[in-house]
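Structure in, sequence out. Go:
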């Protein structure tokens, strides 16, 4: 059996795809997987590391205004559709799965036109443009959050939850602390602005880290994003902090072992991407969410508000992020064990740890029915 999987641009599209692939491989060990991604997306680095066959396509998302750049991107999109038809014809998949991002569009369109069953996996409360278009001819749609099902045709939409890596559930606090050289007995804050980092969070964290250097009761693991790393380090140094002198403070450009980091986390400071939220929910980690304000149709704020309404998170809008606001929110959570425990329990109730298996079963079912 051959299966094409496509999704890219950010970790929020890539890691769900990889998790679904692993779940399918557990059900069908002989399956052949081909991952189709963007030439310049993170998937071009991450997917081959996982030992999965990868084909890159050259295309880019459209800007949200009229521009000369969009003319070139439209031409690349047309070429991508032609390339996608060739990939589908050559690989002969039994089913094609898309997890979002503009790269998934041509592949699922080509697969559908070739009569191949297609599955769209939508992670967010508010569905992206690509998935809303693909849903019109998809065989099935798997949504991560209940609020998203109203966007899609009811008869072929399934609320499965968002897929999470098995390691998220199996990682232990002790192993996480050992991996990062931290103390498993201390309260731990994990800060991450997503796979590409978040400048607003990084800038606010400089002062938070400067104050945390003077107190060792709470330890911090701050993931800046590769592009922001050097600048953040320089700002921390200018604030008078030599990180090598403070073993309870860790600042890193990127994490390939996020499950271990989450396993030792008491409070997370995150953007509101659906994958990160699904993993926090599976672990029951209360969060301070700072939604990315330029996400398509502001879907990150919609994600964050849904989690906040469940009592599992506090939301600070990007425009309101400051050292004082972030430090105040962290202090309030870290010093109130009762509130933090209630938020952790609320977050845990949102978790759907079996989502990947449900999506894999759905994909296999539609290919057999098709």
């Amino acid at each position: 059996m051959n299966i094409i999987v496509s999704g890219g641009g950010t970790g929020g599209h890539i890691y769900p795809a990889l998790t679904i692939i692993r779940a399918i491989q557990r059900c069908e060990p002989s399956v052949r997987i081909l991952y189709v991604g963007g030439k310049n997306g993170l998937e071009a680095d991450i997917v081959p590391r996982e030992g999965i066959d990868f084909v890159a396509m050259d295309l880019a998302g459209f800007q949200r205004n009229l521009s000369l750049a969009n003319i070139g991107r439209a031409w690349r999109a047309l070429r991508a559709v032609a390339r996608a038809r060739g990939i589908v014809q050559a690989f002969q998949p039994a089913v094609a799965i898309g997890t979002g991002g503009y790269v998934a569009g041509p592949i699922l369109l080509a697969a559908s036109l070739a009569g191949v069953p297609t599955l769209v996996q939508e992670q967010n409360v508010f569905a992206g443009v690509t998935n809303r278009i693909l849903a019109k001819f998809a065989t099935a749609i798997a949504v991560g959050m209940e609020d998203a099902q109203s966007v899609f045709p009811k008869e072929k939409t399934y609320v499965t939850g968002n897929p999470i890596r098995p390691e998220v559930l199996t990682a232990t606090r002790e192993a996480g602390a050992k991996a990062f050289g931290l103390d498993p007995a201390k309260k731990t804050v994990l800060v991450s602005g997503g796979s590409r980092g978040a400048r607003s969070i990084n800038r606010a964290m400089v002062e938070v880290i400067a104050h945390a250097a003077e107190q060792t009761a709470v330890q911090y693991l701050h993931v800046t994003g590769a592009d922001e790393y050097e600048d953040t380090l320089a700002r921390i140094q200018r604030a008078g902090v030599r990180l090598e002198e403070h073993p309870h403070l860790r600042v890193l450009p990127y994490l390939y072992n996020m499950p271990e980091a989450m396993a030792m986390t008491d409070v997370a400071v995150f953007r509101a991407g659906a994958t990160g939220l699904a993993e926090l929910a599976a672990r029951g980690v209360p969060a301070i969410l700072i939604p990315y304000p330029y996400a398509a149709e502001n879907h990150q704020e919609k994600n964050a508000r849904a989690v906040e309404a469940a009592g599992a998170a506090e939301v600070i809008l990007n425009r309101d992020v400051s050292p004082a606001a972030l430090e105040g929110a962290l202090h309030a959570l870290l010093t109130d064990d009762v509130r933090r425990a209630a938020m952790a329990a609320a977050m845990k109730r949102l978790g759907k740890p079996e989502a990947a298996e449900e999506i894999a079963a759905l994909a296999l079912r539609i290919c057999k029915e098709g």
